[in-house]
Design goal:
The protein contains 15 helices and 14 strands. The longest helix is centred in the middle third of the chain and has 28 residues. Strand 3 and strand 4 form a beta hairpin. The protein is of the alpha/beta class.
Length: 405
Amino acid sequence: MRYCDLTLAYTATSGGIRTYIDAKRRYLREQTGHEHVLLIPGEKDDRRSDGRFTVRTLAGPLLPGCAPYRFFWHPLRLLEALEEERPDIVELGSFFACPWAAFQYRRHREEKGGRCLVSGYFHTDLADAYFGSPLREVLHEHLSESGELLGRWGLSLAEAAEFGAEKYFGSLFARCDLVFAASPAQLDRLRHYLGDHRTDHTRLVPLGVDTELFHPGRRSEEVRSRLGATAGTILILYGGRLDAEKHVETLVAAYEDLRVRVPQSMLLVTGEGSLRKRLEERAEALPGFLVRPYASSREEFATLLASADVYATAGPHETFGLSVVEAQACGLPVVGVAAGALRERVVPGTGFLVPVDDPGAMARQIEAAARERGPMGARARQHVIEAGLDWNGTFRALLAAYELM
């Protein structure tokens, strides 16, 4: 079988989607005889292959305001690439322009008497993260100053945009042969997108973590010392994209609040994104706040996690929360928000959830989690192990779903 992942969200500094694809390619290489093609936009056309495994880039421009992400510029060129690579299964990790080439390729294969499955993975709640929430925030902020009526009108406009996006993406998911979600809550959300369309092709396939790599034993006092943390320092870590949908600035505000009560605390943010420069400027004036580049290796990130004391995230749009599970596997309590998949990841006794965009509540719970770091961190790792959140389980379930089609 020849598998293909088709996505915009795979760069040198990508987060969860890249982690998922890299883990899939490792599993296919080590556990199966299948082939795999990774098809992504890049700076130039390129193709690298070792026989079973291929990485192919098609030249595409940068997404405005979202560097280093790029997009497929010529849909016909994307179709040609699929025709040349001839995958049996195309899994969509992005839903802007990519699906139409995949659907056309599937039709061409069928016309020639062949077969191709097109699936989609619901990695991101697109309608909420990129349409509803940003518009609600911007329109309400600007229009509410002009009166309550205009403020309500702004919220209604944002809801209409989100509804339209749900309908559009739902129509794409309906055209897929299979659609996967990583958590029960996101499976429900996916079915909401589908609305009146069929939903019998939706499947639950949780993501996973390498529990041998992400392990409390990787804790390093040397790493802590290089960061400026002493034995008594509470080191808070966030690792991920530095974009508006992650609400990183809420986390920074929580840290400012925390430092008033706990001066011996530090916040380390590692990642890349549109907010990076603004965060770096803020770090210059805020003691103990560090902004570091994306951790380019999984080993480096695992060591950073294990060397921290609390993992914190203010993002409300997580569809699984992969970095949260990695932190838990490293023995960290997690403080997050009561939204998205975090409600499933952070179970009682493993951390705390607070209302969205409430820095004060987040600061208080980070302090509480730090006090209970030992027992909470141990329960967090035990939860990951007992829940079976490992990559082998993920890809056994994924391949079994394909084989049944």
